């Protein structure tokens, strides 16, 4: 049976006249690296704050680890949301010790464990104010890991990092997921980076979750395909499925089908349709990038 770490139903948050989260129903399964995608101001941070207990929803329900009475289950969550508070005049170890005591983590070995896990155990007496942005991000995540969470919520963790810093964090997220069995919810507006590690995605726009899909489904939608404009899409789809054995065919509109097979032999598809009385107006080969798909979903394909 599928275990869910997070389930929300019609989660809604309004600040005065502004709707920040609009009836979001999200499902994150145990073991997911869930990429939470949306442009700045789309509602990602507000949603994460609600899940972490930093804000109250106006309406809607939340289940954590299958429980609606989840206050104790919030102890299984680690998070870095917005700009985490770090003490710039302290070392990484001193920062972690402050938060270990504040969180009530009694095991003093936790400090060494998270320093090592985040590759910060060689920073010595270097003050956090002199850390690079990537090191500060790793320190914030180290603090979030102090309580050995089962669910880690990270708000824009790669924002502003250079390519090396991004790659380091990507590798770390995969290690946390695979070696520590931690489920991750990672928000970003950089789809190209999330696509390298995410197993599932939720796309949010103007506070509403407009799509939720697996990495395989996203990849399939971005594969090369032929868009064929015809007089009757339903009949055309039936013909290519029955006569050519095509399984990757969907009706896009009453006059358009999208075919994901025979892409390099599209003339065979065209001839089959014409022989069966279909009026064919146009056939165009497309390959959509992940960013293009994102733009199509949230901005009507108008580009960035």
Output the CATH topology of the largest domain. Rossmann fold
CATH architecture level-2 label of the largest domain: 3-Layer(aba) Sandwich
By secondary-structure content and strand pairing, the structural class works out as alpha/beta
H and E order: EEEEHEEHHHEHEHEEHEHEEHEH
Keywords:
304 residues, alpha/beta, Rossmann fold, Alpha-Beta Plaits, 6-stranded mixed sheet, 4-stranded antiparallel sheet, 14 strands, 27% strand
Description:
It is a single chain. By secondary structure, the protein is of the alpha/beta class. The chain folds into two domains: 4-218, Rossmann fold; 223-287, 2-Layer Sandwich (Alpha-Beta Plaits), CATH 3.30.70.980. The protein contains ten helices and 14 strands. It has helices spanning 44-52, 92-103, 109-117, 133-144, 163-179, 191-194, 215-221, 233-244, 266-275, 290-299; strands spanning 4-15, 18-24, 27-29, 33-37, 59-64, 77-80, 151-155, 183-188, 200-205, 208-214, 225-230, 249-253, 256-259, 280-286. The chain has a six-stranded mixed sheet with strand order 6-7-8-4-9-10, with helices on both faces. Strands 1, 2, 3 and 5 form a four-stranded antiparallel sheet that branches. Strand 12 and strand 13 (256-259) form a beta hairpin. The longest helix is centred in the middle third of the chain and has 17 residues, at 163-179. The protein is elongated. It starts with a strand and ends in a 5-residue tail after the last helix.
